[in-house]
C-alpha cells in the first residue's frame, strides 16, 4: 500500500485507535521479537552484561569458539550479577559463592557442598539466543509467552562475495528505540542534523517519498542530495531504499550515481523504555583499497553522534497519536510507522 495525501488527511481527522504514547514495558508483545544484544566479538574473554527491554542479561561462551548462552543476570542463590563471574571448564561461575552452571543453565556444582543434591530453582533462567550477521540476537519471550513472532531480518549481501563486510560499532542513545527508527526513515533531517558531515543545508528540498507496507514492516525510497559520502569530498545523491523490520531493525540500501552500493544493517535494540542501542554493520561493493574500512567507521561514528546530540534531547515518551505533532509531506514514513506501532500494540497486526 502506498500512502497518499488523502491518507494523511484521514489519519489526522479520524480518532486515534490506540494509546497516545508508546511505552514499551506496557506491551508484552515487544518481548516476542529478536534484538541484537551485542556483537559476537564482544563475548570472548568472559561473560558480558547487556540490558534488553529493562531485563539485565548475562551473555557468555561456555566453550571458546562455540555458541553463546544467554540468561537473566541474577544468581538464584543471592541475586549476584553473573556477568561479574567467569567461565571455568565450560561452566559459568557465580562471583559470589562460586556456584556453577552448564551451557543450558542447569546447576553443575555448589562448591561448599559438592555431594549434596542441588536446591530446586538453583538453575539459571535462560533466554533464547542466536548468532547472526556477526551479532548475538536474543528473544525474551518464553514458550509460555508464545516465543518469537518473526525471524531475524535476512540480509542476503552477507553471503554474497561481491560484497565486503565492514563491522561498525555499538552506539547508545538516550531516546526510545522508536525515536531512533523514526530518525532513520526521516529524509528531512539529513541536511540539518548532518550539516557538518554529509548533509547540505543549502539543498534541503526533497523529491517524492514512496512508502509501502510489507509483511515485515515498511519499505520507503528517497533520493537525498548530500555533500559527500564516507571519507570523500564532493556532492552526490543518495538513492536509499530503507526497510524497517518491525519493531526496530532496519536495512538501508544506498546506491550512488557512480554505481557504488552501500548497505547498512541497523539493529536497534530497546535497552529500556527511554534508551536504546544501535549495532551497525556496513556492506559495500567497493574494496578496502577504494575506501578503507576505518574511514567508513569513523565517518559513521560522527554521523551517529550528530543524531544522538539531537535525539537525546527529545521528550522521553514516543507519540503515536497523529494530533500530537505537525506533519509535512516527507513525514508519511513516520506516520505509517506510528500507525503500525499502534496496530501492533492494539493487537490488530503482527509481522510475518
Ligand atoms: S549469589 Fe551466586 S552463588 Fe551465591
Ligand atoms: Fe541521522
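Sequence proposed for the structure above (352 residues):
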Amino acid at each position: 500500500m502506498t500512502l497518499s495525501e488523502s491518507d494523511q488527511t484521514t489519519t489526522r481527522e479520524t480518532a486515534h485507535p490506540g494509546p497516545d504514547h508508546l511505552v514499551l514495558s506496557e506491551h508484552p508483545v515487544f518481548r516476542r521479537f529478536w534484538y541484537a544484544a551485542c556483537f559476537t566479538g564482544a563475548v570472548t574473554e568472559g561473560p558480558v552484561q547487556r540490558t534488553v527491554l529493562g531485563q539485565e542479561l548475562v551473555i557468555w561462551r561456555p566453550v571458546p569458539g562455540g555458541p553463546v548462552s544467554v540468561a537473566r543476570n541474577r544468581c538464584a542463590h543471592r541475586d549476584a550479577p553473573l556477568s561479574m563471574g567467569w567461565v571455568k571448564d565450560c561452566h559459568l561461575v557465580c562471583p559470589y559463592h562460586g556456584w556453577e552452571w552448564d551451557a543450558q543453565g542447569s546447576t553443575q556444582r555448589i562448591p561448599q557442598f559438592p555431594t549434596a543434591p542441588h536446591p530446586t530453582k538453583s538453575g539459571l533462567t535462560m533466554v533464547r539466543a542466536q548468532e547472526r550477521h556477526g551479532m548475538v540476537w536474543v528473544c525474551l519471550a518464553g514458550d509460555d509467552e508464545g516465543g518469537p513472532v518473526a525471524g531475524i531480518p535476512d540480509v542476503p549481501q552477507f553471503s554474497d562475495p561481491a560484497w565486503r563486510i565492514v563491522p561498525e560499532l555499538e552506539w547508545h542513545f538516550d531516546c526510545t528505540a522508536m525515536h531512533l527508527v523514526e530518525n532513520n526513515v526521516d529524509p528531512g533531517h539529513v541536511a540539518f542534523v548532518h550539516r557538518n558531515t554529509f548533509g547540505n543545508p543549502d539543498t534541503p528540498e526533497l523529491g517524492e517519498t514512496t512508502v509501502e507496507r510489507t509483511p515485515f514492516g515498511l519499505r520507503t525510497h528517497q533520493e537525498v542530495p548530500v555533500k559527500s559520502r564516507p571519507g570523500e569530498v564532493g556532492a552526490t545523491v543518495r538513492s536509499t531504499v530503507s526497510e524497517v523490520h518491525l519493531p526496530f531493525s532496519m536495512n538501508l540500501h544506498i546506491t550512488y550515481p557512480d554505481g557504488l552500493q552501500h548497505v547498512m544493517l541497523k539493529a536497534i535494540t530497546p535497552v529500556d523504555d527511554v534508551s536504546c542501542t544501535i549495532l551497525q554493520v556496513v556492506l559495500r561493493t567497493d574494496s578496502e583499497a577504494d575506501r578503507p574500512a576505518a574511514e567508513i567507521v569513523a565517518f559513521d561514528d560522527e554521523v551517529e553522534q550528530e543524531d544522538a546530540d539531537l535525539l537525546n534531547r527529545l521528550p522521553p515518551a514516543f507519540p503515536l497519536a497523529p494530533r500530537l505533532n505537525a506533519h509535512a509531506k516527507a513525514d508519511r514514513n513516520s506516520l505509517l510507522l506510528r500507525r503500525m506501532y499502534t496496530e501492533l500494540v492494539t493487537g490488530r497486526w503482527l509481522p510475518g
